[in-house]
Amino acid sequence: MATPNATVEIPKTQKAAVLEEFKQPYTIKTDHPVKQPSELAPGECLVKLEYSGVCHSDLHIRDNDWTRPSKLPLVGGHEGIGRVVAIGEHSNTPVKVGDRVGIKWIGKVCGKCEMCWKGHDSSCLVSFTSSHGFRLDGTFQEYAVSYIDYVTPIPEDLDGASATPILCAGLTVYKALKQTNLVVGQWVAISGAGGGLGHLAVQYAVAMGYRVLAIDTGEKKKELVMSLGAEKWVDFMESKDIVEDVKVATGGQGPDAAVIAAGDARPFNQAVMYLGFKGTLVCVGMPSGTAVLNVPINLMIAKSLTILGSSIGNQQDVTEALRMAALGKVKCRHEVRTLGDINSILEDLKDGKVAGRVVIRF
């Protein structure tokens, strides 16, 4: 049974960033209520956060430019590391007060459907209604409620600021790279390589033995990805023929796979054209609105292409992603800021000024 909560002092209110209206700045509140231990349902836990990541998805959610709106009002954020400070009564769980845990996009799954049994957590219907920072209040607050069956154990010796983005950005690209089914020495093109997801994808790909062609723009991002092990670079703003430039950079035939971590339809459509025979396109970034992938059917058949979508990952995937970080194979390049900076952080993301990731320290 859960460890008693009586020895832990929980404040009644906290500092939180609350989205009250779409396309408007977050409101920073200092009197946002904290769910008390007696109010926690069985299976719920209260986590005192140390860090929260800021993801490009948070920008999409704020601006309501996906096809499904979030709830309002909303405490955003879906990457967080902290300590369990309370657990709902009558909870049967190995999690105990004091444990260091991570909060992810998916808050919980049913564990009983075919998708769960097959390890496709992000396709469980319960996960759609239990997403932190979208359907549930997330990590832009000092104390967050999550679920004992789905929080992720975080090693004590893992730096919290660097590890927090692994819980979404790292997990997402690691799972995407696994789905390329590449072998050591094959080429993968990573579009959006200098961003929060992309720079982690470069590191995971290198650690997995793949050769990396990085696609992004700007000298700052070029320096970052090349320092992380990318072999080739294509600047999509400077290139006059990106399809041809990618082919040339990877030996003429085109890469064996492409992972698109950009929120724009164009790199997805370009990848179809530059991929080599038996190439695999893994779609990760979420463009605004109703972006369309236009695939010439004859080309897809002639090149025997595989095209698939990849969303988040399961508990095993995040364990593996964190293990690689703990081994020093992957480290998130990040800037640490405060919760009061959330609106300027989101504007920097919107303007493409963030290389790597921004992490909020509480």
Automatic annotation (TrEMBL):
EC number(s) on file: 1.1.1.1
Keyword entries, A-Z: Metal-binding, NAD, Oxidoreductase, Zinc
Transmembrane region(s): none
Gene Ontology CC terms: cytoplasm
SMART domains in the cross-refs: PKS_ER
Cofactor: Zn(2+)
Top-level taxon of the source organism: Eukaryota
Catalytic EC class: oxidoreductase
GO molecular function: alcohol dehydrogenase (NAD+) activity; zinc ion binding
Record domain Enoyl reductase (ER): where: 23-330
Family, as annotated: Belongs to the zinc-containing alcohol dehydrogenase family.
Name of the protein in its database record: alcohol dehydrogenase
Organism: Agrocybe pediades
